[in-house]
Design brief:
This protein has about 110 residues and is α+β, with helices and mostly antiparallel strands. It has one domain (about 5-85, about 95-105): Double Stranded RNA Binding Domain (2-Layer Sandwich). Helices cover about 35% and strands about 15% of the residues. It is built from 5 helices and 4 strands. It has helices spanning about 5, 35-40, 50-55, 60-70, 100-105, and strands at about 10-15, 15-20, 30-35, 80. Strands 1-2-3-4 form a 4-stranded mixed beta sheet. The radius of gyration is 13 Å and the shape is globular. The N and C termini lie far apart (about 35 Å). This is DUF1488 family protein. InterPro entries: DUF1488, Shew3726-like_sf. Pfam families: DUF1488.
Length: about 110
Amino acid sequence: MGNFAKETEAKYQDGAIRFYLGKEGERQEFEISGDALLQAFDARDGTASALLQAFENGREKITAAAIAAAATPSTDGIIELGSGDFDAKNARGGISPGERNGADSA
């Protein structure tokens, strides 16, 4: 696990990465979808290790998107970041990590 993942306590859960940003007492929990990591950060596949590596590589853009999303007045609980929060780098649109195997053979 890289420094960003350690700093944010990033963990793979149900095809996404959950992480925290903020100072002690003011920390906010976020979740970035596997789709976003596949599309915008070129994760090689939907495995935990590949998504965490893409999360690490996308540190600056993920942090900026999380800060912007947290500024929304109506955010309670876990703030979700998805494909729409980032520019897609590839044509993997609409493919979730669980669907990758079947979609690759088509």
